[in-house]
Amino acid sequence: MSLPVWVLVAIMGALGALARYAVDQGVTGRVGSAFPVGTLAVNGSGSALLGVAIGWGVGGSALVVLGAGAIGSYTTFSTWMFESHRLAEDGQGRLAVANIASSMAVGLVCAGGGWWVGSLA
Amino acid sequence: MIEDAVKLTLYFRDSDRVRGHLAADLLFDLLERSQVRYSVLLRGIEGYGGSRQSHSDRLEALAGDLPLIAVAVDRRDRIEAMLPEARAAMAGGLLTLEAARLIDLEAGAPAIVGGELKLTVYCGRSAQVDGRSTARAVVDHARANGAAAATVLLGLDGTVRGGRRRGRFFSRNRDVPVMVEVVGSAAPLSAALPGLCGLLVDPVVTLERVSLASPGEVTDADDQPWQKLTVHSGAQAMVGDRPLHLALLDLVRSQGIAGATSLRGVWGFSASDAPHGDSAFSLRRRTPMVTVALDHGEAIEPVLPAVCALVGSSGVVSRESVLVVERSAVSGFVPG
Fold first, then answer.
1. Is A88 in Cβ contact with B58 (below 8 Å)?
2. How far apart are CA A79 and CA A58, in angstroms?
């Protein structure tokens, strides 16, 4: 991988992290805090974005910059797992399972839908 | 010997900054300089106040600015002398002063009759007595003597006998103070006092008057303008499918109470349960929880029956008067 790609991954990664922080804060602030909707929102929207890019035919270095850089830092597996675990710790086992299941369902639907939209263009 | 003491409590936030410094650092540097006898910095797991925005360690988006509670106890004149600087170290939040009695148990334990009390013991995090944790021994001793609830709260920073004991990331933090809060009727608590002498290296405790409330038996209203409502419960207590301490925060928030914070203890009991804490192989947390809510007496009073009904037999509700409350400006320097 060439130096410009490394640099672009770093820059897009930083922007993705900032976007994740802003979206998570915004959604959690508006919707409330009983269920981790902020994390669901970033993972769903990130999956949709990557779906659109792949459906549209983005590939090679551009996909690395977008996928590993921007969307890689925008979406989060660790926080999804941490927040599920935290719900289970508090005795909210059903919400923990719902958090895992809903994120997977929303992620798959968003990625598939995004791919379909991208491939139309 | 009973000294006329004052307990200074500051309610603020993790990310509060004053003149470029963290408010917590400024405050504990001040407590160190002033050689305050006992002080402890506690971090809540969830709470709200001032802006009414909730902060919580449950969600990453809300975890950035958790509530902090700093407690400092010393003789009245010493606390009053550092008050202007303490005010100046705050970027927002609440400052309260409560009357407390500082008792040196070596000089003899007083017998206190009537009413209900809160007893607070300070010791090092790793302090041991007869090969076991001093803090746990204090909890067991309190339970054996018939206290209603006791909780061990871990400090992050503090002073013990005037010396700084700050927690550090790469350290065993053996001497960082913990605070053991015990509530109950005066008779069993004063009976427990002499036995504490053998458990503590520095057998100095503070005593405050509280009133315990139970469902259906709400005690007479206090004429003090501000009150602190404290609920000792356990992380395992649920209200429907929600943990009790979170349901409590929701309740007082929806009733317009000015501010509230939940603290997670490491060991303790409330009501009829045996002392408990987390265990290594259990996913469910079983830590004791202490939830504190503050507002004017006339705001606390109407909420009390609902709080008692919610807590039921899963916890212990107590109230105490707060002598002085100052709301610090939301941001910026507060002149002393």
1. no
2. 28
